[in-house]
Amino acid sequence: MVLQPAERHRGDWSHRRLGPWCSPTGSPAPLSCETGCGEGTWILVCRLLVPTQVSLLSMEEDIDTRKINNSFLRDHSYATEADIISTVEFNHTGELLATGDKGGRVVIFQREQESKNQVHRRGEYNVYSTFQSHEPEFDYLKSLEIEEKINKIRWLPQQNAAYFLLSTNDKTVKLWKVSERDKRPEGYNLKDEEGRLRDPATITTLRVPVLRPMDLMVEATPRRVFANAHTYHINSISVNSDYETYMSADDLRINLWNFEITNQSFNIVDIKPANMEELTEVITAAEFHPHHCNTFVYSSSKGTIRLCDMRASALCDRHTKFFEEPEDPSNRSFFSEIISSISDVKFSHSGRCIMTRDYLTVKVWDLNMENRPVETYQVHDYLRSKLCSLYENDCIFDKFECVWNGSDSVIMTGSYNNFFRMFDRNTKRDVTLEASRENSKPRAILKPRKVCVGGKRRKDEISVDSLDFSKKILHTAWHPSENIIAVAATNNLYIFQDKVN
Amino acid sequence: MEGQAGQDKSPQAQATKARKILLMLLSLWPSAASNPHQPMNLTWVIISDTTGEGTMLTRGLKRKCSEDEAPAGPLQRQSLLDMSLAKLQLCHMLAEPNLCRSVLIANTVRQIQEEMTQDGSWSLPGPQTAGRLPRDHLVSTEVLCRSAWAGPAPAPDPADLASALQAVPATQVPRAVPGGPWDRAVPGESQGGFPRSLDQVFGTLESHGPGAVEELLSDVGGSYCDLDAVLTGVVGGAKSGPEGLETFASVAAPPRGTSCKADLGELDHVVEILVET
User: For burial by CB atoms within 10 Å, which of A251, A465, B90, B183 has the most?
Assistant: First the structure.
């Protein structure tokens, strides 16, 4: 799909440095990161509606009647279910921000370039490209529809002028190339300006075609399709630090791919029992180590993390390290296992720690200590007494993600009622913020929110029973070097920035 | 209360009771809960009142949920168990079940069953099973789940799943009384009287009307044996009908005054209605 971004002034390109890919450690975080989250205040940079915003920018109209017929209106915002954002990811420089939605679309936002005229516009993200990554498919063998929902997007580091990203739904991973075209060849001999073939008999002179500038066009083309390797639903993809391989993990297996080879993949983890009756544990997330291309971790539904070394054997069923926290007997209930199920696992940028998210907490583990986490943060402990109701309405199975900031000093994760939480690991301070339409004036300052657990409710507090459990923030992303965060709330994408920045 | 129900032996009353049991079963599947009949003054194990539609289970549960979670009484446990089984049923109805969710729910069911077994509120048939792990009796949750995990049609992993499916009836699924009405009711069942999955039972029950239930359960002894087998099979697996029933009766009689757990007493009460001992 080729699209014309509107209102883009592309003048001099010399300031764009399309340099070598980022080093794995990334650039050192600027001072703004090190102030942490307690000192800084967060302001809203922009709120983007996907894809309504896209249509407002007069993108190529793509009326998908099937989607419209099968969707339903929500929240009076004229958004369809297909617009629900299902993944958010910054690229390695933070210049681009990709979102995937339930309708199989990928929308890429690009950061507004700094300009002398409009200083305040720096930091805003505008639509750069949008394309349909996955279509719904039908598995004839199982008589089941394969959802087109994008589960994960992962960027490849930039190696040339084009951008590459991996996007996946439940079954198929695709490598997309996003490239710009701002010049067009003119002056062909055999074709005229409209592209019609010229009669060779009429050609009397020869000319050399020249490249002339044209309006910027951003093209997205699928370069590789990695299909038919997963029986179960893919939950994670992770690009290896060698930038030649990546892995895809489903509920029971993890496969290793080479970017160049689409008809083969290596199975490196298989926890499927011989007898499916004995299945009690599934893989929930997996990630490669940021520096060591032989190391990866995967988390399970029983709250364990396994670190594996691919040098040990071809099939990494035997872990190198096993991280598990002993259960707290005082907190034991029938829901203990469900809330211990890990929904996300992320290496720190330094590669020394991993962070895991289970239903009520975020935990930071040191790779050298397997028997317990070094830090535990309560995200919404007030829900502990509501687990039965949350089990009943299925909220207990919600999979929240978690992210590190660029310097690994702050961690962030989402909650209900469109709340999201940040924890400063150094100062031990935390803050609860809300991504809401009511406060979405640009540059509006986010006010910290507080949930009242019992007793008297103060003026600005919200009581636990008033929380809206249908408004959940599952997907967030943090800019790799600056204090800019992207928060997905249903079909809205909020971008916040630290005011100090 | 017990005497009144136990002594009414007319086919009419039997049918009414059977309908009540059907209601109880159907309440596990909220969408299929039919119009409740006039409730008799019976104490039921699972549901607290028969007003309302499928949400009665959830409503009752909400009342319990508002209290502190920590002391999970037997009634709460039972409600949780029923809710979990209902969720597993829903797994089966969705387009593509979420394996993680199914596994977590199945583990929860297993945990509840283990605890109930340890408490003794769940009767295991016969002393020969005393040393055995409860896992053998919990196979029915796998049976429930497998239809969710495998999908409604043959899965792309036909080799292992098919072998798993075939292995189950041979080794672990108990065989109910042959020739019982469940055989007639579940014509697709080739392996014996025991329904392979709960939804097959539900599907059959739903497709026939309440009148058919009477027809199905008109045979007193055998039918109630099978019904009881289904009941126990749903939640914990059991040996075949008559054995299990005898054990029920034997367990029920002596420790009535002594161990007096709410579950056991009420199960025993239900059994009385069924068997009319």
Answer: A251
The structure's pTM equals 0.67
For residues A482 and A94, give the distance between their C-alpha atoms in angstroms, rounded to a whole number.
8
Selected residue with higher pLDDT from B240 and A186: A186
DSSP string, A68-107: HHH---BTTTTB-GGG-EEEEEE-SSSSEEEEEETTSEEE
CB contact under 8 A, B69 and A232: no
* Chain A environment of B167 (Cβ under 8 Å): 275
Q: Do β-strands A375-378 and A402-404 pair in parallel, antiparallel, or remain unpaired? A: unpaired
Q: Check CB contact under 8 Å for A337 and B151.
A: no
Whole-Å CA distances, A307 to A152, A238, A312, A366:
21, 14, 12, 12
> What mean pLDDT do residues B256-265 have?
47
Going by C-alpha positions, the residue among A185, A181, A184, A167 that lies closest to residue A219 is A181
Question: pLDDT tens-digit profile of A343-393?
Answer: 999 999 999 999 999 999 999 999 999 999 999 999 999 999 999 999 999
**Separation in Å, CA A70 to CA A66, A147, A154, B68, B96:** 6, 13, 29, 41, 17
Cβ–Cβ pairs < 8 A, chains A and B: 108
Q: Which residues of A touch B151 (CB under 8 A)?
A: 142-144
Question: Is some CB atom of chain B closer than 8 A to the CB atom of A270?
Answer: no
Backbone angles phi, psi at A30, to 5 degrees: -70, 175
Encode pLDDT of A318-349 as tens digits: 899 999 999 988 888 899 999 999 999 999 99
**Chain-chain contact of A301 with B157 (C-beta, under 8 angstroms):** no
8 Å CB contact of B95 and A275:
no
B8 min Cα distance to partner chain A (Å): 38
Which range, A78-82, A354-358, A445-449, B164-168, is most confident? A354-358
In chain A, residues with a C-beta closer than 8 Å to the C-beta of B68 are 385
ipTM of the complex: 0.83
- Residues 313-342 (A) with a CB less than 8 A from some CB of B: 333-335, 337-338, 341
Cross-strand pairs, A186: A210
pLDDT, tens only, B120-131:
766 544 444 344
What would the DSSP string read from start to end of B147-207?
Answer: HHHH-SS--S-HHHHHHHHHHHHHHTSPP--TT-HHHHH-TT--S-SS-SSHHHHHHHHHH
- Which residue is it, tokens 């940040």? A422
| Nearest CB neighbour to A333, from listed B69, B139, B151 | B69
CA triplet A490, A495, A500: central angle to 5 degrees?
Answer: 150
Contact check, Cβ <8 Å, A397/B101: yes
**Which pairs with CB-CB distance under 8 Å and at least 24 residues apart come from A139-143?**
A139/A171, A139/B156, A141/B153, A141/B154, A141/B155, A141/B156, A142/B96, A142/B151, A142/B152, A142/B153, A142/B154, A142/B155, A142/B156, A143/B151, A143/B152, A143/B153
CB A28 within 8 A of CB A405: no
Distance CA A88, CA A90 (A): 7
Q: Inspect the interface and report whether the beta carbons of B108 and A170 lie closer than 8 Å.
A: no
How far is the C-alpha of B120 from the C-alpha of A331, rounded, in Å? 24
Beta bridge partners of A184: A212
Quote the CA–CA distance of B257 and A229 in Å, as a whole number. 60
A111: its two tokens? 């950061």
Q: Do B65 and A386 count as a contact with CB atoms less than 8 A apart?
A: yes
Does B104 sit within 8 Å of A301, measured CB to CB? yes
Mean pLDDT of A406-426: 96
Mean pLDDT score of chain B: 50
Mean pLDDT of A134-154: 89
